[in-house]
């Protein structure tokens, strides 16, 4: 029994260790505010630019944009279904 207890303590210590955490081990971190802001500024600039849209239609890039929009909408709807815990409607009780 003491041996099993010591193994349990070692496992708990490893899981709490910063070296064990995959985020620290792989050096993952969230994007900086400046990076996120830059991405949204680029999207907004393209969204209001007529030349961008006319170029997208001419180069058939509009189909790729449409697919991305459809994927985003699908992910949103799946999140709604999971959040409501049902496929259609809300629980009104």
Describe this structure in words.
The chain is mainly α. It has a domain at 2-61. Helices cover 72% and strands 0% of the residues. It is built from five helices and no strands. It has helices at residues 2-16, 22-25, 33-47, 50-58, 61-84. The protein is extended, with a radius of gyration of 24 Å. It starts with a helix and ends in a 9-residue tail after the last helix.
Summarize the entry for a quick read.
One of its GO terms (molecular function) is proton transmembrane transporter activity. The protein is an all-alpha fold.
What is this structure's SSE topology?
Layout: H1 2-16, H2 22-25, H3 33-47, H4 50-58, H5 61-84
InterPro entries: ATP_synth_F0_gsu_mt
Protein name: ATP synthase subunit g, mitochondrial
Family: Belongs to the ATPase g subunit family.
List keywords for this structure.
mainly alpha
Please describe the biggest sheet, giving its number of strands, its sense, and whether it closes into a barrel.
none
Q: Find the structural class using helix and strand composition.
A: mainly alpha
Q: How much strand?
A: under 5%
Given as residue ranges, the uncertain stretches (5+ residues, pLDDT < 50) are: none
Instruction: Report the helical percentage.
Output: over 70%
Number of strands: 0
Shape category: extended
